Amino acid sequence: MELDRTQVEHIAALARIELTDEEVESFGQQLSHILEQFELLRQLDTTDVPPTGRAADLNTVTREDVAQDCMPPEDVLSNAPRREGEFFRVKAVLEE
Amino acid sequence: MANLWELTVREAHRGLVAREFSSVDLTASCLERIRQVEDRVKAFVTITEDLAQSQAERADQVLAGGRATPLTGIPVQIKDLISTKGIPTTCGSRMLESYVPPYNATVVSRLLEQGAVILGKGNMDEFGMGSSCEHSAFFPTHNPWDLARVPGGSSGGAAASVAAGEVIYALGSDTGGSIRQPAALSGVVGLKPTYGSVSRYGLVAYASSLDQIGPLARGVADCALVLDAIAGHDPLDATSVPRPPSGYAAALDGIPAGSSPLGPQGTRDAFRIGVPQEYFVEGLAPEVKDRVEDGIRVLESLGASVQPVSLPTTQHALACYYIIAPSECSANLARYDGVKFGYSFQDTTDMWEALEKTRRYGFGPEVKRRIMLGTYALSSGYYDAYYIKAQQVRTLIRREFDQVFSQVDALVTPTSPVVAFPLGEKTADPLQMYLVDVYTLPVNIAGLPGLSVPCGFSQGLPVGMQLIGPAWSEETLLQIAHSYQQATEWHLARPQLLATG
Hints:
The complex is a heterodimer of chains A (96) and B (501).
Chain A: H1 5-15, H2 21-38, H3 73-76, E1 83-84, E2 87-88
Chain B: H1 9-17, H2 23-41, E1 44-47, H3 49-64, E2 75-79, H4 106-113, E3 117-122, H5 156-164, E4 169-173, H6 180-186, E5 189-192, E6 213-217, H7 220-230, H8 248-253, E7 272-276, H9 286-301, E8 305-309, H10 317-332, H11 351-362, H12 365-378, H13 383-404, E9 410-414, H14 430-435, H15 441-446, E10 450-458, E11 461-468, H16 474-487
Parallel strand pairs in B: 2-3, 2-4, 7-8, 7-9
Antiparallel strand pairs in B: 1-3, 4-6, 5-6, 5-10, 9-11, 10-11
Helix pairs in contact in B: 2-3, 5-6, 7-16, 10-12, 10-13
């Protein structure tokens, strides 16, 4: 499995990471090399084998619907890169 | 008396309760040790000296009132991806360099309830992704046994701080070997508990179906004491399993030194130990193999019955892990968008550019690599071939362990195929770095407990022996490892490099 430039750039766009030209090059080589190792898995017959998504055998966990205190807004906002009053301030999402 | 910083958790507790010394004395001794060696070891991202001193004073009041629990007044280092209220929690990343959690992880709350003394936060590979501590965004940690070598990772700071005597014990986390592998490379004991036994609330997520918090210490009994404190159901973690509490440390108290707790060979009471052939193959350093085989002979001499077993899917565990872990990582790390916390690129008016540049400058190369790998494995057209296939292989690996554990009580393997390697040796080739975890990651895939215990040296560098058991068999693993330590002296060796006076 050889990843070309276009594929690497496509993955980076999906992951929302801006890459330098150098990174596109090196990630392309490294990821291709790693994906080659994954080809080994194809040798295994997994017909009718159910997938395992988690290690603990727990079903959906629920609790009583009881109101509890939540974290004070000041604490929630304490790490905000930008804030305005009790709000996180973000870049404009909608165009004018 | 020896230096206070050299004590184990158990010894420190006895001394504190007997009023031979105070928590303030013990804390001061560790802080003095940190002053002596930390500029060479670099195990801490943050040192919380003032906090530690005030916690020690409070612990001394608790001790004076006769209300001490086993961890009261004892200094600990916390891996820097475990949330500590009011103390920076960087995850070894530029992304969280100035992040200060507004709440404590459940494990931290439990330690504080016991009157623990927090000396600081442990260096690590960024977000837990790495096997050498070289992927810390700040600086690498050095192995106390040879400062030119890595301590292992990702909990490298935890392992090195314990080995160097800077703290009495540490909390780490283990997604594919991140407690056991650095414990092995740094010559300390590390325990990765059963998935679901220790709350992950407040543990910054890397791969949620694999992550688990556990202790690193200089003795097996110490790990049992810490596990008693941190294990148990937590409603704040939906993957935490409700179970009655176990007395892990108490289970060891019945094993006096010099006894044969593994039972006479051949009787029904003897532990049955399996040696999986697939863990003793090409790639395993000959001297590591020799030391682990020596260790197996010691267990045999203590009365365990030893038999070869087979886990054929082991050779596929690496690929299985490096699809599942990066896939989960790519989803978990999507939260770093520069909006609510963490690094945020501001020098633009465009939302998408801000997001993509935040992640460009905030993440280091290994984190980007794993996000990319996971994004690819989960992307349209590849999902079935990679992600679903890996989850099916995960089922096969679990089934094989289940089957083997119908024949034996525990498995013994090397923890790492190699001893501590020189800084810089494996950073250029990610796959070489991944291979260091080849013996530890099957345990995470299956959600099992695993423990690494020092079992000798190869050219002056520590070798670790791994014990693996079925889910919830911590008590068995701790008993076997404790008996081993009663019969051997490897855990008493200390790095001479850092010897003082």
